[in-house]
């Protein structure tokens, strides 16, 4: 009787990206299969076709799971050694191993890697731990305990008091104290109906915590809403989900149905006199619907345009009834507060910003993803300790926070503790928590133009300062990035920014100039370089750069010749290529594929 | 060539009769304009299929007429004639939109050939436009289509507060929001057409034009932007030959941009029919597109 082979290895993933396939990944996979069959018959180890491992220069790449060892430059001849030594013997084949992991996988053992060890999970407490489609999983992890406590043991006033004590503030961007908001709505003249709304119209580009929360832990949001409804005295709730998030929508609908089936939603919840139910409304693609009055108009089946306040939604909101709107992350924070008490929550964070905040750490950073840290964690800790630093170890230039309404914080201010007040002091806002890391290859004028264009697109057009003012700003910025900027443009931008800020109807307009103002404040030299020297220091603005081949570095590999869509690059194999400036459309395709820095950042210069 | 009209401005009587003879023999209807102003007036009142223009008119009037005629009728082919062909005026004429530049001394058959090429191209363009038009005006006011739309409206008891949701469902079934559907919805819900139209144009998810079989969404969220999303979009525009927001001629792809799909870790990202492609480079686009028919 043959003994069944024992190994910890579960799979050998052979990268099947195009580079690795060209380098012989298929043969390597076949050789690994053969070696497994010969040396470990019956072992349950799979040889998988992996996705591109982004180590295209070192193919073929083999990743051993679950330990995550990466082998590069593997040949069919190495297969037997990997199987015998690593799979069977548990020892790494040093000769082939890539250097220490650069990017930890998305979920290594929690708390071990640098990415996870500084995080404190409250809103994202169940991340990766539970099956989002299983209400039982949620309940097994303290789910609905806070809600049970709130409904059966606490008076509504007590719930409001705990949330106030917790110091929880709106996580969607405004930062308004949640407890106070609830209290106002609760105290507004009683009538038959009050509504609560979960704002899941996550519009800030670069922020995706709401999506993640709804997709991975929908019940935490539902539980938060039930507690909120109990505190406020609402009978009906809505979850307004962005149409770009179909999966989130499905998960929430399933979760609501499950909760209803368990008697956690509907008539007489937990046999109390409290009844409450939730509907899901899909958005249809409008950034401004994240603004609460616009959002309510959208739920009513109208165009999502904001209206002036007062009256505030807490007095007259959805269908003219008192309404309370909170963001997904805010709702997800409520159950633990109800369960553990406000004082526990308030023990985390800074003097005026309590608890934790989820950030989406994206852009030019090594570890991208969602992180949750106590308020007051410094930007440096977030970017370098958790994020692992800037991609390709380039120089950090700025971090953009708060989405299109936020601003850019320069590299020399990385030691500020991140909370509502400090970010505001730096000229930016917390927003929904997008942190976009920018390196020296990011042009700040281009970034400002990007946000202004975004807001021009999304302005609902109701009030003039926003509609016209933003368009004028975009025109000026267009001019600057096209190399047609002129003296006085910067001052004009500043004047426009002031007027738009002062005179706009809603938050969209009032914060729209922020990206321009902060980049002007911290990166004025870049604007000046564009306007006066007709130069884009970051090498981004098409009109101000030219691509050229660096003869000394070009190996004549022909990759850029194939990549160029207009045939501007020519040259025989193994000899430095020639780039025809007349044909070049500056698409950057050659720059993307060049492996030898021959068409490189340092090679970009301006005439 | 029956019914094809050629309008001619030619100052030499001899040349006029030569052209008239040659063209009439081939079945063209020939009209003559006396001078520049009457030529332009003719273009407005009875637009011909083609114009032959004498560039030797005094005071370089020919060139000016050419530009004006092209601006009045951008699709109209204009063939320029001259006694003394030279490179510079030829280039100038082509630049101003002439279809061709021929010498008066050339053979009649060459002129006829040039005319028939120009008209062929013109006819093809007309046909293309016609076909595109037919495609666009497919109607949806037959009982069957309306019953399907009615079914969608009945899901929420014809409540007008669910308008956005109805339109989403209609678009899901029909791929866009045809005019007939919008009219029917307004009538059936007893709300004004402008209100329905307002919703259909306010929200980005809705399209009033038919879209291609496959929908390409290029993410322009901030993370994608700093990692080259704009370049991806431009690359798609080149690859598909249409600007963002348009549909390819063969109805295969519609290209749109979207503001952040919430997959910032994979930036830059694009989607085809809802399937995500992350960490993309321009180089990979043709291969991905080839997977969709």
What keyword list fits this structure?
heterodimer; A: alpha/beta; Glutaredoxin; Rossmann fold; Ubiquitin-like (UB roll); 4-stranded mixed beta sheet; globular; disordered C terminus; B: 293 residues; alpha/beta; 5-stranded parallel beta sheet; 9 strands; 14% strand; elongated
Rounded mean pLDDT of chain A is 85
In the CATH hierarchy, what is the class of the largest domain in chain A? Alpha Beta
CATH architecture of the largest domain in chain B: 3-Layer(aba) Sandwich
**Major sheet details of chain B:** 5 strands, parallel
Strand order of the largest sheet of chain B: 2-1-3-4-5
What's the shape of chain B? Answer: elongated
CATH superfamily of the largest domain in chain B: Response regulator
Helical fraction of chain B: 40-55%
Largest inter-chain interface? Answer: A-B, 58 and 47 residues
CATH class of the largest domain in chain B: Alpha Beta
CATH architecture of the largest domain in chain A: 3-Layer(aba) Sandwich
Tell me the CATH topology of the largest domain in chain A.
Rossmann fold
What share of residues are in beta strands of chain A?
Answer: 5-15%
Distance between the termini of chain B: 39 Å
Count every beta strand of chain B, where a strand is a DSSP E run of 2 or more residues.
Answer: 9
What report would you give on this structure?
Helix content of chain A is 38%, strand content 12%. Chain A is an alpha/beta fold and 607 residues long. Chain A folds into 5 domains: 11-88, 3-Layer(aba) Sandwich (Glutaredoxin); 135-346, Rossmann fold; 356-439, Ubiquitin-like (UB roll) (Roll), CATH 3.10.20; 444-532, de novo design (two linked rop proteins) (Up-down Bundle), CATH 1.20.1440; 546-607, Alpha-Beta Plaits (2-Layer Sandwich), CATH 3.30.70.20. In chain A, strands 10-9-13-11-12 form a 5-stranded mixed β-sheet. In chain A, helix 6 crosses helix 13 and helix 18 (464-481) packs antiparallel against helix 19. Chain A is globular. Chain A starts with 10 loop residues before the first strand and ends in a 14-residue tail after the last helix. By secondary structure, chain B is α/β, with parallel strands linked by helices. Chain B folds into 3 domains: 5-135, Response regulator (Rossmann fold, 3-Layer(aba) Sandwich), CATH 3.40.50; 143-202; 214-290, Glutaredoxin (3-Layer(aba) Sandwich). In chain B, 48% of the residues lie in helices and 14% in strands. In chain B, helix 2 runs parallel beside helix 3 (61-72), helix 6 (143-154) crosses helix 8 and helix 8 crosses helix 9. Classes of the chains: A alpha/beta (607), B alpha/beta (293). Chains A and B meet through strand 9, strand 13, helix 17 and helix 24 of A and helix 7, helix 9, helix 10 and helix 11 of B.
């Amino acid at each position: 009787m043959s003994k069944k082979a024992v190994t910890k290895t579960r799979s050998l993933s052979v990268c099947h990206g195009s580079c690795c396939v060209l380098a012989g990944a298929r043969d390597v996979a076949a050789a690994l299969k053969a070696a497994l069959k010969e040396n470990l018959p019956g072992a349950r180890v799979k040889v998988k076709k992996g996705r591109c491992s982004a180590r295209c220069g070192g193919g073929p790449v083999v990743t051993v799971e679950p330990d995550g060892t990466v082998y590069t430059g593997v040949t069919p001849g190495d297969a037997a050694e990997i199987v015998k030594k690593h799979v069977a013997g548990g020892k790494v084949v040093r000769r082939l191993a890539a250097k220490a992991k650069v990017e930890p996988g998305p979920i290594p053992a929690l708390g071990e890697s640098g990415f996870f060890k500084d995080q404190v999970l409250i809103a994202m407490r169940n991340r990766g731990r539970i099956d989002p489609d299983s209400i039982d999983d949620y309940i097994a992890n303290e789910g609905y305990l806070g809600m049970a406590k709130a409904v059966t043991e606490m008076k509504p006033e007590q719930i409001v008091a705990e949330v106030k004590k917790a110091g929880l503030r709106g996580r969607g961007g405004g930062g308004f104290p949640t407890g106070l908001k609830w209290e106002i709505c609760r105290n507004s003249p009683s009538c038959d109906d009050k509504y609560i709304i979960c704002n899941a119209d996550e519009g800030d580009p670069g922020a995706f915590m709401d999506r993640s929360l709804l997709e991975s832990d929908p019940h935490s949001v539902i539980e938060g809403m039930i507690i909120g409804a109990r505190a406020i005295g609402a009978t009906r709730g809505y979850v307004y989900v962005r149409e770009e998030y179909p999966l989130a929508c499905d998960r929430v609908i399933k979760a609501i149905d499950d909760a209803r089936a368990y008697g956690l939603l509907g008539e007489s919840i937990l046999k109390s006199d409290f009844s409450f139910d939730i509907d899901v409304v899909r958005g249809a693609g409008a950034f401004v619907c994240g603004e609460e009055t616009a959002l309510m108009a959208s739920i009513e089946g109208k165009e999502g345009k904001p209206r002036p306040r007062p009256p505030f939604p807490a007095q007259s909101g959805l269908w003219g009834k008192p309404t309370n709107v909170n963001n997904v992350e805010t709702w997800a924070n409520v159950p633990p507060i109800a369960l553990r008490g406000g004082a526990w929550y308030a023990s985390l964070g800074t003097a005026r910003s309590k608890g934790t905040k989820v950030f989406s750490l994206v852009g030019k950073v090594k570890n991208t993803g969602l992180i949750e840290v106590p308020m007051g964690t410094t930007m440096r800790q977030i970017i370098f300790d958790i994020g692992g630093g800037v991609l390709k170890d380039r120089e950090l230039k700025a971090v953009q926070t708060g989405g299109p309404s936020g601003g850019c914080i320069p590299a020399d201010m990385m030691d500020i503790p991140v909370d509502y007040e400090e970010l505001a002091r730096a000229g930016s806002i917390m927003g929904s928590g997008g942190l976009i890391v920018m390196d020296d290859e990011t042009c700040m004028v281009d970034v400002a133009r990007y946000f202004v264009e975004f807001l021009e697109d999304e302005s609902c057009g109701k009030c003039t300062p926003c509609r016209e003012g933003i368009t004028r700003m975009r025109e000026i910025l267009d001019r600057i990035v096209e190399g047609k900027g002129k003296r006085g443009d910067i001052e004009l931008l500043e004047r426009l920014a002031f007027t738009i800020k002062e005179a706009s109807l809603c938050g969209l307009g009032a914060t729209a100039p922020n990206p321009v103002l902060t980049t002007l404040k911290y990166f004025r030299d870049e604007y000046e370089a564009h306007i006066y020297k007709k130069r884009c220091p970051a090498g981004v603005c098409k009109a101000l750069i030219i691509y050229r081949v660096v003869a000394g570095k070009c190996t004549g590999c022909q990759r850029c010749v194939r990549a160029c869509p207009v045939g501007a690059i020519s040259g025989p194999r193994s000899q430095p290529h020639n780039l025809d400036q007349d044909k070049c459309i500056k698409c950057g395709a050659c720059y993307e594929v060049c492996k030898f820095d021959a068409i490189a950042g340092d090679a970009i210069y301006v005439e | 060539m029956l019914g094809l009209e050629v309008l001619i401005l030619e100052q030499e009587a001899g040349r006029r009769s030569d052209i008239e003879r040659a063209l009439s023999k081939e079945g063209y209807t020939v009209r003559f304009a006396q001078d520049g102003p009457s030529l332009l007036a003719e273009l407005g009142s009875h637009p011909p299929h083609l114009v032959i223009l004498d560039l030797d008119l005094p005071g370089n009037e020919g060139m000016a007429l050419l530009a004006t005629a092209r601006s009045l009728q951008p699709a109209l082919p204009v063939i320029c004639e001259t006694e003394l062909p030279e490179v510079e005026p030829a280039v100038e004429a082509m630049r101003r939109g002439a279809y061709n530049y021929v010498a008066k001394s050339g053979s009649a058959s060459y002129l006829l050939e040039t005319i028939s090429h120009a008209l062929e191209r013109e006819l093809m363009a007309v046909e293309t436009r016609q076909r595109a038009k037919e495609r666009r005006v497919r109607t949806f006011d037959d009982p069957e289509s309306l019953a399907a739309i009615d079914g969608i409206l009945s899901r929420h008891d014809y409540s007008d507060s669910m308008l956005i949701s109805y339109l989403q469902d209609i678009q899901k079934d029909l791929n866009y929001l045809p005019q007939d559907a919008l009219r029917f919805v307004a009538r059936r819900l007893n709300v004004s057409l402008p209100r329905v139209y307002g919703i259909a144009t306010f929200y980005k998810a809705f399209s009033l034009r038919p879209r291609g079989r496959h929908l390409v969404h290029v993410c322009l969220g901030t993370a994608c932007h700093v990692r080259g999303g704009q370049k991806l979009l431009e690359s798609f525009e080149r690859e598909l030959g249409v600007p963002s927001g348009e549909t390819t001629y063969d109805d295969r792809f519609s290209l749109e941009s979207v503001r952040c799909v919430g997959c910032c870790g994979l930036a830059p990202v694009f989607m085809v029919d809802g399937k995500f492609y992350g960490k993309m480079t321009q180089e990979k686009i043709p291969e991905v597109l080839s997977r969709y028919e």
